[in-house]
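Inputs:
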Amino acid sequence: MSKTKTPAVVSGRTPWNRFAYNNNTVGYAFAAPFIIGFLAFTIIPMLTSLYYSFTDYNMINKSNWVGFSNYINLFKDERFLKSVGVTLQYVALSVPIKLAFALFIAFLLTRPSKLVSVYRSLYYLPSLIGGSVAVALVWKELFSRKGLININLAKLGLPTVNWLGSMTAAKWPIILMTAWQFGSSMLIFAAGLKEIPTSYYEAAKIDGANGWQIFWKITMPCLSPVIMFNLIMQLISSFMVFTQAFVITTGGPNDATMYYALYVYKQGIQMRFMGYASAMSWVMLLIMSAITAIVFKTSKHWVFNESES
Amino acid sequence: MKKKQLFAAVLSVAMMLGLVACGGNGTSTSSASDSASVSSASSTSVSASASSASTEEKKEPVTLRMAWWGSQTRHDRTVAVIELYEKLNPHVTIEYEPMDFEGYFNKLNTLVASNDVWDIFQMGSNFPTFQSKIYLLNDFIKDGTIDVSGTTDAFLRIAADAQGNQVGLCSGVNTYGIAYDPEIFKQAGVAEPTENWTWDDYKKICLDIHSKLGIYGSSKFDDWQAGGSSGISQEGFEYGFYNSDNTGLGFTDYKMLANYMQMRADLVDAGAYPDPGACNEISDIEQDFIVSGEAAMTWVASNQFVALTNAAGRELKLINPPRKTANGPSGITIQSSQMLCVSNDSKHPDEAAKFIAFFQSSIDANKILLAERGIPTFTAVREALADNLTDVEKKVYEYVDLVGSFDTGGKPYNPASPECGEAVKEQYKYYLEKVIYKEMTADEAAKAVYDYAASQF
């Protein structure tokens, strides 16, 4: 297609040579590993799950076409509706806490200090290991009835909390574990903060603005595109919360932490209603797309865009 | 320059493919002769090259995959038996995957979907769900690959389907029971349970122990077994949760489920039974609250009693679960604790069957296993083990004999549970938690469980 761009390399003796040394061929050859992986592990499974969502597939018997009945049953399933509720609650609580914490630490780390890069690596560490089952198991121990958290609460003379047995308290260990993995958001915030020209701050100081005013009038507007990016990324990953809830609470007590992905797993793998679980996954995709679209739509009201102002 | 780069890229891809192809054949030194001998063992040229690979015998190397669920004790002993078998049969290599119960079935479900089930796998009463994946042992028994002369028809039948097909070989028989700590009972001044105790007695004991000692009266029960499955059987010999051929429910009055649910909620309320969060801290028998002395009783399968006592490190006793009425049915029966099956996906079903036969009937193997999966069904094995029973193991044998002496109303034992069993069990637990957290009354929950189970047929 763009043969004319590479006359020097194309020897042009045989059609094979012309094909093999074409820029596009080389490009596709090097992109092939990704393309194959994308097809095999993303596109094909997605299309298969779309097909299964219209069947009663249970992994053992032959599946039958059932039309939209999986989708209709979903909205009659009280357990499903409750899991949507607790997932939305989890997202609404964990994303702001995580982003606020990431921004706060990023802000502290903008101070000129020789140790900044050391601190940054240290604070990033939880993000590297935080998704693992091992850390989730440690977390489960920490918050158990006689775990470290309750031992220390008792030592301080405070009442202990039945973290994993109470329907209202059980979400907090999971939310805190999510917030603890603030590292990647923090790095992005730190980069964003560096981009803000110091002249803005100098001008504000000369005009007599205090720190609080500088933060709300200069830092926040200038950082809003980065906040938007972080918000979208964290929204999506929060909707998919699985490992923490699976290991720490297994969805309990009484479904207080039965998050969406966990319920999909329970229906699909444990109870073997794979068709139903596939339908659930597609509904999740729709919900996530809708929420992301809303964030994008409203963004022009709160995201500062230099080219427009 | 470009030419060289492309060439290098193509070469490296080719090399990687080559490596992957070699890796698939495992550890053998001559992978070419391996794959050839599998595909056509009869041709002479191949057997010549194969004999150079294997040492004395002219047997082609076989790799079998095996998986089971269980505690650490079971893992260690099973691995030891596998190693023994590999020593006796150098041409066989067994790759094993020890797992916990839930992980095992989740993995099995996915392997079923991908037609890649382990050659040898452990199975419980839910085998009808997986029957399409089970290689029946009928022919192996007929042709003598599996020698069943050392066991009885009754023991073979507990690992067979309704048509009498041999789906597996039983690893041992067990039954359910309650393990309790007599020392705690004494401290609390509560009389030890007898075989005719009722659920009302159980509730009172739990509350008494809790109020006197501040610990849980009872640790985590298998709620489905206690309240659902055997709970219905306790109503009368004519009842069962499912009917005898698994085509529907075996009872009509949903209220039969309500009492247990109400009692469980009351006990959690009183603090005499761990709440769902605390129950979640127990992931295997070694972490049970009776081990740490935080509870006086717990639910066990009889074959787990030895591991439980070892973990606790003090004397525990075993009694049958409480009954609904003092003279009513016990609701429990002697059953196959689990069996080993050969998979339909296996390339070497005969080798897998040979291993299973060894595992269940070899005295040497069972001296390692020590009845951890239940009391062995081969007479010679049972007799060989009987000589060196420890006191704890004797208690298990006595208990199984006691349950065997209970009146079963002449009802034949049904070793299978229906395909919807897993989903019904899950729904039962779901509604039970709703009762515990007071979102439903026990009566509503019982009706919901009944309606759900009935809708599955």
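Chain B touches chain A through 33 residues (CB under 8 Å). Flag for discussion at group meeting.
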